[in-house]
Each structure stands twice: as structure tokens, then as C-alpha cells.
Protein 1
Amino acid sequence: MAGPGGDMQWCFSQVKGAIDDDVAEADIISTVEFNHTGELLATGDKGGRVVIFQQEVENKNLPQFRSEYNVYSTFQSHEPEFDYLKSLEIEEKINKIRWLPQKNAAQFLLSTNDKTIKLWKISERDKRPEGYNLKEEDGRYRDPNTITALRVPVLIPMDLMVEASPRRVFSNAHTYHINSVSVNSDDETYLSADDLRINLWNLEITDRSFNIVDIKPANMEELTEVITAAEFHPHQCNTFVYSSSKGTIRLCDMRASALCDKHSKLFEEPENPSNRSFFSEIISSISDVKFSHNGRYLMTRDYLSVKIWDLNMENRPVETYQVHEYLRNKLCSLYENDCIFDKFECCWNGNDSVVMTGSYNNFFRMFERGQRRDATLEASRENSKPLQVLKPRKVCTGGKRKKDEISVDSLDFNKKILHTAWHPQDNIIAVATTNNLYIFQDKVN
Amino acid sequence: MSEQGEEMRTLEEQQEMEDKVISPEKAEEAKLKARYPHLGAKPGGSDFLRKRLQKGPKYFDSGDYNMAKAKMKNKQLPSAPTEKTEITGDHIPTPQDLPQRKTSIVASKLAV
């Protein structure tokens, strides 16, 4: 990225969140998502709260400063619950947020925890009525007998108030833990996926949901794989994909049948059986799947790599990018400290030319597809001077460590970047560390 | 005869070394098996997945759950009333002893 000849360089823009190292569990960021215009940026956390940032209008007098994201609205989306039948806690952690395309003045988003999806309406109020006939300005009712003349109330401007209200609650449709929601391009329906089932909902109807995928075996002893992520195609409202813990992706067509247990396409890279090890299946588990914006490609993230699939070719990916191949020598310890089960997400840039994903030590990786170039950058408070250009980072795998390189054994595996998001049009990215949200933008030359 | 035997042995050693060089995963697997000899043969099998399906600790009942939550909250907020912190394990709690289910909502630190 930071190469000779004026390539894209990334600069620090903003960081949100507390500086102190003592992180309360509720503050752990669990999802980050831009809306369709990129004007709004939503985060969800383990405490069930949603914070929405809004891009301020650019300051035209200072062209080198991009607009900033400031707090627009914040609300408690989900609360902890207790499942009395199973004696299990239902965490309030927000697993996913997905924005609906804007249709009127209000903004809508879906937020979900393990069991319940909610549709939130975020609306602005910047006027208030004044001059009621029956009420005083402070709200007290007037005695009707004292009213001698009538007036028409007028709307006067007031300080902007942003209100979030839950408009729909979609509950009781998932026995297992919801990992994904995806809004359909038909603007009417959306899917929600848990470990074994995928349901189709109408955004207006909360008391009914259609099951479209069910991979639960009749005998649970025969369980071999679970659903890890699901997404609708960006343009074809009949098409969706779901990924599995075995590293496969299934594309389904809802026109084929009501229950899409039989896939239309199965994307799977053949494995060399001689390479198979105890860890093979675990590291092949897909933690995220994302369609490209143009709908022609699929990106999947497994523990060590990012793969790009052409929808027309099922037998292998067209591109594979190693995120942190040096970890292959550390799988034993990563299994012992559970890091091998970390679920990293991935994202496309607006024109599908660059993909991004997170890693450990607060590093994140970008892969420029056409240029075959990649970069490792770090989100840290040390590189947080305004518009400071991020220096590329390098992990040293061999014996001799160069200056500025970091050795694999010095990586901090508690500092993981699981969630990243890319503005749909501009080169602005949001990167979530454990409890901080970093916003970077490319250097405006 | 013995020369042939030696040759075969070195061939096997070579194969082992090649395995380690070709597959760091297999080396890691050997390490893991050395530490945990009883680790199941089928790693991605039912047990492992079923643990994933049921995440989180299982409580005895909702009273147990509320007590555990209260303990956690009391750890985070030392200013909580002391009478309530002592109601653990000695006797069956009554509804009056349990803290309120809804606590004050703490705003996210991102929204500062």
C-alpha cells in the first residue's frame, strides 16, 4: 500500500472508546457496519448497546481534512435474558447489525443477539409544536373555561434530537445461536441463520418465519458440520449462500424449492489428504462470507486465509491470500488458548478491488486484488496523531529480526481485530480493536 | 543384509523429517498429542460441535442465574449495598433478597 509512486496510503483519522487497559466485558465491540451511503457507521457491543456515528459535512475551507464521524445516536438494543426451559443465559451481545436501504427520512437497521432480531427505527426530530390551546408551554393542562380564543399551533425549530425506537421484534424462531442476518435486495425480506437452520422473514411480519435451510441431523450424534455465516446475493433476490464449519459454501436458489436443503452450487476446495492433520478441519472452518458488490464473487475467511471464489467456478477459489501463514507453526498453542476458534470477518472495498481482514496484535491486512499487493497495518494509540500515515508492519518468521519487525512470539494474541468495515464508496475504513473503534482514511494528495 | 537394514532405517527417518518439513501442521499435531494423549481421534466430530452449539455455562435454575449475575455486578460495583452481597450459599434466597433485575443502563464508552 505504502509503495513508491503514489500508491494508496492510509492515515489515522479518529479513534473512539476508552484509553484505559482495563476493559469491561460489556465494552467489547462485537460488530461494525456502514450503512448503504456510508454516512452512518454503527457498532454493537457485548453489553447489547448500539452506537451510531454520523459523518459530518465536509469542511470546504480545509480540503485536506475529511469529514469526521461523530456520535449520532446510542441505545440499548438487547438485554440479557434467561431461558427458563434450558437454564441457559441468553447473552445480550449484538452479533450482527445490518442496515436497510433508506426509503424515507428515517433510518432502519436490524440488530440481533443469539436469539432475537430487532428492527430499529432511527429518526430525527428538529421541530416541536408550540402554541397548544389546551396545554401550557410546560405541559400543564389549561382550564378550558379560561380559553377565550383559538390559535393554530406552529412548529418551531429545536435542537436536533435523534430517537431510536424498536419497530419490530422477531423472536422465538431460533433454537440455536444466530450468527448472521442479511437483508434481501427485494427490500421486503431478510434471512437469519443459526448453527443449524436458516429462516426467511418478512420485515413487516414478526409472528411468522419460513425455514429455508435445516441441516440438523435426525440423530445429533451424527452432527458433523454447522452453519457459520449466510448472506443474500446483492442483486438476485432468489439467491443466498451459507458457509460451514467444514470449509464449504453452498449457494441456494429459493425458486428451486421451499426448503433449500439441496444446494444449487457447492464451493469446496479439494484437500490434499496427505496434508490432513488434527487441525485441518478447525482451521478450514469459514468464519465469514461476503458477496462482492458486483455480485460476481464470494469472499470467505477461514483461520489462516482469505479466498475469493468466482460464482461460476465451484471446484476451487480463484484467489487465495495468506493472512498470517506464520501461525501454522503455532497451531498447538493457539488450540490451547482457544485462539484457533477466533472468528475473523472480512470485507470488500466499494469497487471490489481490495479486500481487508483482521489479525492479531491489532494488525489488519489488505489485499489489492489486481495489483497482487498486500499490506499489514496496525491500529494502535501510538499511531494516532491526526492524519499520521500508517507505517506498514512486518512479522518476522525467521531467526534474524530486522529493526521494526516483530517476531511471531511477541505478538499479542489478546489484541485481535475481528471486525472491520469499508465505506461503500470512499476509502474510509472502520477497524475495531477489543474496545476501541479506529477510523482511517486514505491520504488525500 | 545389515547394510540394507540400515538403508531402510535412514529412509524412514528421512520420510519423517520430510513430513515435518512439508507439514508444520503435522508437527503441531504431534506436539498436541504429546501433551494430551487422550484427545479424541475425531477432532471435528460431534463432541466438539455440540460444545459449540451449547455455549455458556449451564445454571441450575433462574435463581442460580440471578445470584451469579449479582455476584458479577457486585464485583464491578463495590458501592452496591452490602446486605445483598452476603446472601449467597447460606440459605435459600427470597425474592426480597435478590437485587433488582434491571440495573441502570451504563452508556457505551464509544459514545463519549
Protein 2
Amino acid sequence: MAGVGFQRWVRTLSKGKISGISGLLPACRSGEILTYFPINIGEIAAAAKKYNIRVEDYKPIADNGEGYGDYPQLPDRSQQDRDPAYQWDHPDLRRNWNEPMHWDFDMFIRNRVDTSPTVVPWSTMCKQLFGFVGFMLFMFYLGDKFPAYQPVGPKQFPYNNLHLERGGSPDVEPEEVKNYEI
Amino acid sequence: MHPTTLMYTSSLLLMFAVLLYPLLVTFTSLPLNNDWASSHAKTAVKSAFLISLAPLSLFLSTGMEAVTSSWTWMVTTTLDITLSFKFDHYSIIFIPIALYVTWSILEFATWYMHSDPLMNRFFKYLLTFLVAMLILVSANNLFQLFIGWEGVGIMSFLLIGWWHGRADANTAALQAVLYNRVGDIGLILGMAWLATNVNSWDIQQMFILSKNLDMTLPLLGLILAATGKSAQFGLHPWLPAAMEGPTPVSALLHSSTMVVAGIFLLIRMSPLMENNQTALTLCLCLGALTTMFTATCALTQNDIKKIVAFSTSSQLGLMMVTIGLNQPQLAFLHICTHAFFKAMLFLCSGSVIHSLNDEQDIRKMGGLHHLAPFTSSCLTVGSLALTGTPFLAGFFSKDAIIEALNTSHVNAWALTLTLIATSFTAIYSLRVIFFVTMGTPRFLPLSPINENNPAVINPLKRLAWGSIFGGLLVMLNINLFKTPVLTMPAELKLAALAVSILGLLTALELATLTSKQFKVTPLRTPHHFSTSLGFIPAIIHRQIPQLTLLLGQKIASQMVDQTWLEKTGPKAIANATTPLASATSNMQQGLIKTYLTLFLMTLVLVTLISAT
């Protein structure tokens, strides 16, 4: 088995198609790993064929030194956004076999980010939600400033304000306390 | 030991043993018989309920409470943890109620999940959940409570995602786990603070040792935990999403037992909160906002289970309000009465859903009071109890809460919101009854409407008895810890009843509009706000995962390599030296004036430096 791999490696190197360290890798048959950003129409066509997209649909990710190679820029739509009634090859994933995967496919699975259109635009949603929360916080602040309570008065005690119970002497005449008015 | 104490503690531990036995049987490799669910699991819960009545009657007649410490788990120099159960007023009343409700739900589930090939596993999960919940409720230290807390969270995940082939169910289960996890941050924060400052996780010790400490930080942690577990505003979206699970799961976990765990934690820790006005105000305002917001969302939902889920969330907000009023016992009473009628509402909706061949949209139901009279009656009784109809179960707890709210020194806006939410409760309850039971059927003629199964009728009957008499029984037999304010103006006394009747009349008015050509569409903006649940799922569930996943992906695959291979190496050198090179070369253009200026500047500098 190792002998077979070695033979394949020797054959690839001798064909001389791929230079550098890529030539040493066994998977490196004609353009299986990421190649460079496509420049001319031939490379664009080859890349579109490799990724199983039409040449009209193929658009490489802009070359900003981030190392995307010739990977296509697919529309940022989530799997949840796709038609649930269509007969997909993998109905739970809403994907067909050998379909090109978005670079952020793991973000766009049905359990994660959903890009389906919303009922109202994004700005309206944010304004309404944060406006609601802000309004509530402001009203709670006002409610704290002007609380609701029942009218109360100081506690009243009998027996001349509990003169004896509060340790007053039984000999001293306590002052008359009237807690009512007629 | 005194024989009464022995009987008390051993019957409670026997109850645990009875519940654990069916679970342990499933860990052997022997196959279970087909009716293991009804013969073992349901019977175990029924027996556990009957066993738990003995300590309950002891408690009610003598006021006996007990703390049982069974086994020392670990002992360190500063902290020791034991397997310790606290059977006090709260747990002794809650345990029989939880077991009664679970017994009814399990019996119902034998009918509801009959066609499920993994019904035995379903019952095993429900039993495991029940054991975890009882551990949570009877825990005497925070470690044991945390075990129960996480246990109910995990079982919630497994049960919500029961139909795991459905992507929406998986998403909902994930939501439940993640939101609960955010709440757990608070719980662990509180536990860590208490462990380091009070050196104990034992409830009695914590109460004594924290008398003179500023408890704001751990209390905020506990409130965050309750926000996550009990679906308060901010961490609430998981509760309506949890309706993806089967109806028995919704009835048990997401109405009666699991969601009240957060409130129960705050009730247990209420002596810590009594003197902390910040924590109490936060509970009050958060609860008021929750109850109002979720009641608003419930008004426009069309899925019967979602309406009941939002109703649960609204009642949980009310319980939080009660804690904010420093009335933990009233919150506890509401937990107990709420369990009865909310579980019954879920079982009625399950009966209706199965009868209409898994139809959950209320716009496609109708006329069921002729076709499923028992279910409709129970639905009506449950809704009446929910709205606080006098002398049904909900009245005793809800009216007491509203009276306490009206006579306390409270945030006026919290008071307003709670009363509005109480009227909304009546509105959406009538909406459910109107769409489900009244009018003419809006479903297909060939529907398997059958409520003639004792597995449906008996649980509903039992929970109906509980919804009617439960509140009265509990109120007659307990002593209130805090003296309620009994004298108040008539307007305040009747406030709850008045707003509920107002809501009922509004809903009736709106219901009559369905047959009149009044206005084609409702007011768009508030309708969209309510139907889209305040846009919170749309914004939060898209924005935050997108940012974190995108950032993670970019950092992992692009940014690290690009930074170390380009931006700190070759490109950095280029970016640093290019401006310097261009500045230098710009100076040396061959202009004599530039050279003379530089010569003069150097001369001046040298003169100045040599002069000093």
C-alpha cells in the first residue's frame, strides 16, 4: 500500500505539472487542492468546472491576501432560506449531492444563522425593539421616581403610648396622649 | 430517633427509591416489556405520590420540617458538601403536587405517545427529569441544587429534541440549552462568591453568615440564573421554541416543574434578598416587563401550544414580581396552583391536537365543544383558573399577589404593567377558547376525534379537581409567614377581577368582529411586533451567531496565517519603511533651498545645544 503511494508520488513528480511542496503531497493531482486566484478565462473555466458551477455563476472571492484561492463566492443565503417543499437529495440539509458548499456552510446550516427574509426590514426591527426596551427602562425609572403606595401614618399605641410597657415608672403620672380627634 | 421523625424522613427517602428503581432497571441489558411505561414508570410515580402524602399530612398537622444529611461527600478545610435534603414548608408541599401532576401527565403520555416506537425511553427520560427536579427542590446545599439544576436542563434538551429528525426541534433544544447556560453563569457566579466569602453552600449556614455582608453581587447572579431557567425577559425565547417537543414534555417541564426552578431558587434564597432593595427592585421590574411582554406576544399567536407557552412565561413573570414584592411564599403558592391548571391546559391542547390529526393551528380548529366536550370543559375550567376566576385555584394565589402589589410601596410602572398583563391573560384565554371550542369546525370532516380513552379522561379529571380545589386546599392548610394586608379600598381589592373582566369584555368584542366587515387588517406595526415576538428571535438569533461564527472562521482560517506570515513580517517591514524612504527621498530632490534650510536648522540646533 505504501508502495502504491510512493509510485503515485514518483509519477506525479515526474510529470512535472505541479511545482514546489505541493508536488510532494499525494492529493495533488491536477488541481485538487486550492490553487491560485484565477486570472485568465482558462483558469476561470477550469475553476468553475472543478466546483461544479456554471461559468456565468462563478465569481472568485476577492484576492486580499487572505488565501481563499479560487474558491467561489456563493450567495450568503442560509439553508433555512431554501424551499422546504423541493425534493432535495438531502432533505434535512436542503442540499443536493455535489452542490458547491458556501465557505461558511457551517454557519448557514438550519440550526444556526437564518437569512430568510423578515416581515419588516432590519432597521425597523431594531428601531422597534430597542425603542421598546428603552421606553420600558425610562418608564421604570419614572415609576421609581413616583412610586405607588397606600397612604400611611405613624403607628399609634394605647395606654398613653405604652407608658408602663416602655419602662415608665408606675408612680409618675403619664402625660395624656390622645390618638384621635372627634 | 423519634418514630415520627423516622417515619417522616424515611418515607421521603423511600419516595426517591421508588422513583429511582425503574430507572436503575433500565441500565441492565435485559429488554423491557412493552408496557414498561405504564406498568413500571407510571405506577412508580403514583406510588411515590401516595407515599409523599404521609409526610405532607404530618407537616400539615404538626408543622414538622426536617433536614436529612445522609452522606458526607467531600470535606475540605473551608467547605464541606454532604448529600443533604431539606424537607421544609416549600419542598413538602411542592413534592406531592409535582408527583400528582407528573402521574397525570405520564398516564396521558401512555395515550399520546402510543405510536412512538421508543415510548419506554421517553418515559425513562421523563422519570429522570422528575428525579432531577425533586433533587433540586429538596436540596439543602447549593451543590446538590446545582446537580438537580443541570439535570433538569439536560433532560429538557433531550426531551425537546425528542423528534431529533426534525431540524426545528434540534434548533429549539439547542436554544434551550444555550439560554439556560447563560443563566448558569449567574448561578455559578453566585455559588463562587458564596463559597469564597461565606465559606459554605449549606442553606442554613449561608443565611446566618451573610447577615452583615453586601449580597448584591451573588443575588444578581441568582437573578440571572432565574432569568435563564424561568424564561424572564432577555433570556425568554427558548420557552416558546421548546414547544417543538411532545405535548407531555411541554406539560411537565415547560409549565409546571422545570421553569419554576428559577423562581424556586429565588424563593429558597429569599432570606438573602429580604434586605437588598436593589435585588428586589430588579426582580419586580424584570418580572413586570416579562409578564407584560409575553402576554402581548400571546395575543397574536396562532399555535395553541405557543399561546399556552407564552401564558406560562407571563405567569412566571408574575411570580418574579411577587418575589420582588418580598413575598416569596405567595410566589410559591402561585407555583403550586399554576402547576395544576397549566398542565391541564397543555393536556387539553394535546388531546385536541391528536384528535385533529396533529393540527396545532387554532385557525383550523373550532366547534370542539360538541365533538370533544370533556376536553373543552377542562380547557374552559383551566382558562378560568388561569385568569383568576374567584374561588378556583388560580384565584387564591393570583388575587393575593395582586392585592399585595396594590398595597405595597412599588414602582408605579411595574404595577401598571402587571395589571395590563392580567387583562391580557383574559384576552388570550378567551381567544383560545373561542377559536378551539366555539363556532363551527374549520377542520377536515374525517378527523380521529376520540377522547373516550380513560388514559385521557382520568388525568384531565384529576387535574380538573386540582384546578378547582387545589388553591382552596393549600390556602386552608398553610400558615402565611407574612401577615397580608387585608384592609384596602374596594377599588384595589377588586382590581384584579375588574381588569380580568375588562379583558374578557374586550376579547368578546373582538371576537364578534370576526363576522363583521369592520376593518380588513389590524394595525400593522403593533401586530407585527406581537406576531414576530418583539423581533427578539429575528435580531438576536441571527446577529450574535453570525458575528461569532464569522469572526471565529475568519480568525481560524485566514487571520492567523495572514497576520503571522504577512502582516507582522514582510508587509510590516514594507509598511514601516516605505513612508520613511519616501520622506527621505522627498527631501533630497535637488532643491538648494531645502538644503540651505536644513543646514541652517542644524546650525541653530548645534548652537543651542552647545550654549546650554
